[in-house]
Amino acid sequence: MTPDAASANQSARAVALRLSAATLAIAIAALGATLTPSRAGAQEATVQRPNVSHQRVVTKPPSEVSWRFTTRNLRQIKLRLRSARCSSRAELILDGRSLERVAVPKGRKTIGVKAFRDPGTHKLQLSVRPGGACRRARVTVYPPQIKEWIPIGAAIWSRHLSADPAFGDLVANEFDFVVPENDMKWAYLQPRRGVFDFTLGDRVVDFARSRGIDVGMGHVLVWHVQNPGWLWQRDPANPDATNPWTREELIEVMREHITTVVRHYRGAVPEWDVVNEAITENGSYRKNIWYRVIGPDYIELAFRFAHQADPDARLYYNDYGTETANNPHSDAVYRLLSELRAKGVPVHGVGFQTHVFPHLTGVPTAEAVSANFRRYADLGLRLQITELDVAIPGSMPKTPAAYEFQAGIYRDVARACQRQPACERFTTWGATDRYSWLTKSAAGLPFDPQLQPKPAWTAILDVLRPRGRP
């Protein structure tokens, strides 16, 4: 299937996955039930995206039907029933937990349930029994509709939440999740050796919980920037270092930091940017403190330490300039992740930062990004847009035409993510030009300094939320 055909089969925010099977008839008796047709086994469907099909069917008594399906981000389940002869009662169960119990009157009944689940494979079960004094009912079960969408998130800095309540309202009202822009970096979490301070990172988590949105990727466990001074004091590259780190010492420092941080946020932060920007633009390893002292295997060690600290967390490698193929940076990252996966290192996904400077880096097209995404997805990796912003060149007047040009880039990146089943989240590196790592003149984010939506935000919604927010 071509990307355009796949796109046509999926709504950007709520994709209706229809199991293309014949309807199922359940004949229910008071002292037992039989399923029609009467072969032994449970009704089960394995769904592969984007072509949703009924792969395998077996049936068994007494009165249960089940389906297996894979989604990016599950948000809603709809199931249509038709009860003949008399009423019945039905229970909808997802992954072993009851979602809904309903009475099914004689005639038609639609069950609609919000069901929030992370990407993965899920099992949906329907249990039906006769209602009231009914001794025998016949219930027809139609293929369920599984709706999903790609959540949109924003990176935030906790200090802006307390200083600017209107900003917090914007984030909570418009975005589905938040990412800590700075509050979980080494310099803030471990300002002194062995002394951890989670105050700022906890504020981001508490804000998300209090406003009913999710926490996305924890950023960041290992990076070459925004590290505390005590690391630099013993860096062999520091001419004033009198007692440089040994390999064994720095491995232990890294292990202690990763373990302490990931365990602290276990259950609150579902995924981590484990290693950030380990490759340079020419495709070579970045000669940071970790590489200089430990060697290139610091990357593998970091992922293994994070996995040991939280086996349930999804672990990502994150980098810039990698959203398209056929450049030394992107190709080197691809080789690195291929090698790590081949060795069984617990790398679950890759983050594409996608900081776009049209006058410097060019403009990534939906076709080019989609092609690159396919090769990473073929490695079995999850994909995310992690730090998207689009700077308007300083020489370009901030006219409606300039904002439409910017919106076109946002739209193309969103389309590439929407087309690729492995792309699970879409994050802008900030929400508003009022607070951005870019200069205000770059105007790179989807809301302006007055917190009003720009054409870029409309472009994102047109692709990822064509029917509004769930």
The tally of helices reads 14
Radius of gyration: 25 Å
CATH homology-level superfamily of the largest domain = Glycosidases
Mean pLDDT figure: 84
Distance between the termini: 28 Å
Strand % is 25-35%
Q: CATH topology of the largest domain, anyone? A: TIM Barrel
Structural class: alpha/beta
CATH class of the largest domain: Alpha Beta
Give the low-pLDDT segments: 1-62
Biggest pleated-sheet summary: 10 strands, parallel
Q: What would you note in describing this structure?
A:
This protein is of the alpha/beta class and 470 residues long. It has 2 domains: 146 residues, Jelly Rolls; 313 residues, TIM Barrel, CATH 3.20.20. 30% of the residues lie in helices and 28% in strands. It is built from 14 helices and 21 strands. The strands form 3 sheets. Strands 12, 13, 14, 15, 16, 17, 18, 19, 20 and 21 form a 10-stranded parallel β-sheet that branches. Strands 1, 2, 3, 5, 8, 10 and 11 form a 7-stranded antiparallel β-sheet that branches. The chain has a 4-stranded antiparallel β-sheet with strand order 4-9-6-7, with no helix packed on it. Helix 10 links the parallel strand 17 and strand 18. Helix 7 runs parallel beside helix 9.
